[in-house]
Amino acid sequence: MTALTLSTAAATGLRADAIVVGVAKGAGSKGDLVVAPGAEAVDKAYDGKLASILETLGASGGEGEVTKLPAPSGFKAPVVVAIGLGEVPEKDETYGTDALRRAAGVAARALTGSKKAAFALPVEDAEGLGAVAEGALLGAYSFDAYKDQGDAKSKKNGKNGKDAKAPLAEVALLGAKPRDKAHKAAIERATAVAEELNRARDLVNTPPNDLSPEAFAAVAQAAAKEHGIKVQVLDEKALAKGGFGGILGVGVGSDAPPRLVKLSYTSSKAKKHLAFVGKGITYDSGGISLKPAGHNETMKCDMAGAAAVFAAVISAARLGLEVNVTGWLALAENMPSGSATRPGDVLRMYSGKTVEVLNTDAEGRLVLADAIAKASEDEPDAIVDVATLTGAMMMALGNRTFGIMSNDDAFRTSVHEIAEEVGEPSWPMPLPADLRRGMDSPTADIANMGERMGGGLVAGLFLQEFVGEGITWAHLDIAGPAFHEGAPYGYTPKGGTGSAVRTLVRLAEHTAAGDLG
Fold first, then answer.
1. DSSP letters of 444-490?
2. Residue 157: its pLDDT value, please?
3. Which of 235, 310, 503, 516 has a Cα at 20 to 30 A from 344?
């Protein structure tokens, strides 16, 4: 992983492969390019003409734009990299943290193969510094575990494999204060969260032949041991004995049996308890209700919710948050076979409710229902489940925004605000009571399918049935942003994104601070 250092050195004298500066679109009709704060020394070395030189090269300051030019005479770095920040802030305002995070991510990716870069972006405080650090670590991410790793010599020269370049090795954050407690804390937080988020990305990107429910559980056990977290793993025998009909019903068609993992981080100073529940379908074929060709190639990502929960719990432990956080990973592989659950079968869930399975491709809600019911027994202050649950949510909100549903409007608003605070696009969604009737079953207590229109909301209503009485609950449907199939942007790579990790961690931080009541 990319190393971070805090530096008070001047950009002119720092040995590095590149100096990164920020530029923006100026206000007004002309929109002239503006050099952002933090780059004053660099601009001075160009005799104050950096903006005009960049404009000559075609730069506009647009968000995500990258322009490279030779460094001025006397610099120990050979290249200056100008990163577009978008619109210049209004008077008396500063560049937003997510703008900084995205710019740092773009810069880190643009400098893939470099050993060291100095970032001179417009950081005003510890929060901005943390955003740049986080963006750099997330933007430098690459998943190369299954590629030819090459020899030691190629790695030394900044390459992974025969042709691929290694991620940027080191980022020096200029303007930071190495002895400042707030700055050090910001870097430590950014490092912990980014490392765990990138581990979640690794899990999502891992091929399903190497990430069975048992293998995922083993990863969780190892991490829990490393960070002093209590872990409990229920295998197929324990699940059968405990009556977890939903998880077993989904996993019964696979040769790789299901698991339910409980991760418990506790703080002696905690006054609140959060439970996070993650959907962990390590591969989703659709089961007997088989997905058509073109819809199953990326279904290794159907465990992204469990990966997010896992990363959030480990992050809480690494940060030493004063809140108890329990993570539930509902892990199964959904496959068709002679032993698989059929459309028309009825499952008896952990809660005692019976569910008529009308579509085996609506399996995520079945494993989540058991895990939510089990989590409710601990009577946490709130339960938040995270799942790549419905294509309907993608149809409603697109590929970059997740939906938030809740049985408490105030809590839904809080989760939405927290998601926006950390730069994760989200939108509050309703749970219309009239849609519940569509899940009425003549055979069981409820069916796992309802009306087609509003399918994402129907799934939320189904999950609500399994939340313990009086417990605040929210459901995050991350089907859109969990796996990115297009070109990288900002600090978001192609493949697994780590969606919802930062929202869960910030929710835990706010809860620890008593900000949520």
1. SSEES---STTHHHHHHHHHHTTSPTT-EEEEEE-TTTTEE-S--BT
2. 59
3. 235
* pLDDT value at 492 more than 70: yes
Residues linked to residue 385 through DSSP beta bridges, in sequence order: 277, 475
HSE value, Cβ hemisphere, 13 Å, CA-based, for 448: 31
DSSP 434: G
pLDDT above 60 for 155:
no
For the record, the structure tokens of 468 come out as 């313990």
Distance CA 299, CA 3 (A): 32
In whole angstroms, give the CA distance from residue 424 to residue 419.
5
Quickly tell me which residue has 């494993």 as its tokens.
367
Q: Note the pTM of the prediction, 2 decimals.
A: 0.96
Tokens representing 309 are: 């929960």
**Cα(428)–Cα(451) distance, integer angstroms:** 20
Q: Which residues have a catalytic role annotated?
A: 291, 365
Cα–Cα distances in angstroms (integers) from residue 290 to residues 295, 359, 376, in the given order: 10, 9, 32
- pLDDT tens string 463-490: 999 999 999 999 999 999 999 999 999 9
- CB-facing half-sphere around the CA of 156: CA atoms within 13 A: 3
Q: Side chain identity at 453, as an amino acid letter? A: M
The closest alpha carbon to 140, from 197, 97, 99, 178, belongs to 197
Contacts of 153 (CB under 8 A, 6+ apart): none
The one-letter code for the residue type at 501 is: V
Q: How far apart are CA 491 and CA 422, in angstroms?
A: 13
State how far the Cα of 147 lies from the Cα of 154, in Å rounded to an integer.
14
448 vs 453: CA distance, rounded Å: 15
Under DSSP, the state recorded for 191 is H
| Nearest CA among 478, 485, 506 for reference residue 388 | 478
Q: Which residues of 254-281 are buried (b: 16+ CB within 10 A; e: fewer)?
A: bebbbbbbbbbbebeebebbbbbbbbbb
Inter-residue contact 349 to 369 (CB < 8 Å): yes
d(CA 257, CA 119): 48
Cα distance between residue 57 and residue 69, in whole Å: 9
CB atoms within 10 A of CB 499: 34
Decide if 2 contacts 139 (C-beta within 8 A): no
From first CA to last CA, the distance across the chain in angstroms is: 37
Which residues is 262 bridged to in the sheet?
232, 328
Question: What's the Cα-to-Cα distance from 82 to each of 43, 60, 246, rounded to whole Å?
Answer: 11, 10, 52
Nearest CA to 332 out of 257, 237, 238 is that of 257
Alpha helices in 164-302 (DSSP H): 181-205, 213-226, 236-242, 245-251
